[in-house]
Amino acid sequence: MHAPRGQQAAHPTGLEPTPPLALFDLDGTLIDRADGLRHWAEEFTRDRGLGPGAVDWLVEADADGLKPKDQFFAEARSHFALDESPEALHDVYQQRYPLFLRCPQHVLDQLARLRAAGWRVGVVTNGLTRTQTAVLEHTGLTKYLDGWVISEEAGVRKPDPRIFALAAERCGTDLTTGWFCGDSPEADAIGGRRAGLRTIWIRRGRTWPASMPPPDRTADDITQAFQHLLTPL
Question: From residue 13, how far is each of 10, 16, 18 by CA, in Å?
Fold first, then answer.
């Protein structure tokens, strides 16, 4: 059995109980990636004197972060006839994009509340090490986490169960009493389930795919997800 949320599960041998674990996706879950991307696109457009519609084109071409960045910047260079190489554009992106991201204070406060209640708290994110590390540091999240895993440095991506196990290890616990919260049906909810975690899906106004087994909980936003975690069963 799982321990009630916020409580530790007693170890069957009478040893120290296993701390409950809350793992979170980063983009679209703890932070509003869409808002940060649009602000980056506005600066990119302004700095290069691009025409009307450039911001919307960049946001759409980004495909909610799912398009590989080498492909994204190759397409942007061609579409806007830019002189800079895709590699140079990507390098500037890695420097500037993290600066446009924010983690609301109320989210940081809820992470602190989980840890004060005895939870171990971590992040599991797909992405490039340089970019995602900068995001974690710039938003202040590193001060509120026991550990985190970025797919590039780990050599494994969600939904592979190994990345969740690695995150639990870095948080100083295991997956026994764990939850995973994220906005991707496949990478987060299905991936977390395969790793043995209970799952909370952030719907972001969407409908759960009928072809997939449902998550344990569905939340309209991260605030509601915290409510699920902090309310005893």
Answer: 9, 9, 12
Q: Classify the phi-psi angles of 201: left when phi > 0, otherwise alpha if psi is within -120 to 50, otherwise beta.
A: beta
pLDDT over 70 at 47, yes or no: yes
Region 116-124: mean pLDDT is 97
pLDDT digits (tens, 9 = 90+) for 68-115: 999 999 999 999 999 999 999 999 999 999 999 999 999 999 999 999
pLDDT at 42 over 90: yes
Question: Which residues neighbour 14 within 8 Å (Cβ) at sequence distance 6 or greater?
Answer: none
The SS3 of residue 216 is coil
- Cα(174)–Cα(159) distance, rounded to whole angstroms? 17
**The two three-digit tokens of residue 97, written as one number:** 């994009």
Residue 72 CA: distances (Å) to CA of 32, 84, 122, 136, 185: 20, 14, 29, 23, 23
Q: For the chain, give me the number of helices (H) and strands (E)?
A: 10, 6
Residue 4 has pLDDT above 60, yes or no: no
> Which strand (E) or helix (H) includes residue 56?
helix 54-62
Q: For residue 208, how many C-alpha atoms fall within 13 Å in the half-sphere facing its CB?
A: 18
Torsion of CA 91, 63, 147, 151, to 10 degrees: -70
| Tokens at 75, concatenated | 């397409």
